[in-house]
Amino acid sequence: MIVHEENLYAITAESMGALFILSTVASAPMEDVTASSPNGLKWFQLFVMADRDWTESLIRRAENAGLAHYQEKPAATGTRSLSTNAGSVDAGLSWITQLLLILKGIVTAEDVQLAVQRGAAGIKVSNHGARTLDGLPATIDVLPEIIHAVDGHCEVYLDGGITHGSDIFKALALGARMVVAA
């Protein structure tokens, strides 16, 4: 077996009791990554493409490999809003899998409502570090609005904007269930 960096990250996360999220565009096959850390908590980050059969095959592979959740990453728009880009979030995937949907890229209360309507078990408050889009609010700044809008319907995770350890504690104190720090 070739050792890819994803395998090493998964092994390290397992040894620390931390979550590992495997990307659709990972260099290692998901089956190898899950085999390298059989007891670790691993999620799959799905990039939904136009080819529905390919998308479904990825989800099936994730299920068979033992990945616990999948997260759908909506295509970027200028405002990074699900409400203006609702077609990018594929509500139809819920019939394909029993994996729980974690929806990434939520930055508005309106997006929370759409995510809940689409059956999200969790949402990731994320602006992708504002690397891809200029002018987005900081995740920590929108977190209170998101927590309020969720109103207990799903879990909320903060992804991005972590520059110091104290940022993690602030996000947890504001109501995030988990903080993703990469």
From TrEMBL:
A Gene Ontology molecular-function term? oxidoreductase activity
List membrane-spanning regions: none
Q: Which PANTHER family match?
A: 2-HYDROXYACID OXIDASE 2, S -2-HYDROXY-ACID OXIDASE-RELATED
Return the Gene3D superfamilies for the record.
Aldolase class I (3.20.20.70)
Designated name of the protein:
FMN hydroxy acid dehydrogenase domain-containing protein
- Which cofactors? FMN
Presence of the UniProt keyword Oxidoreductase in the record = yes
What are the UniProt keywords, alphabetically?
A: Oxidoreductase
Q: Which residues form the FMN hydroxy acid dehydrogenase domain?
A: 1-182
On whether Oxidoreductase is a keyword of this UniProt record, the answer is: yes
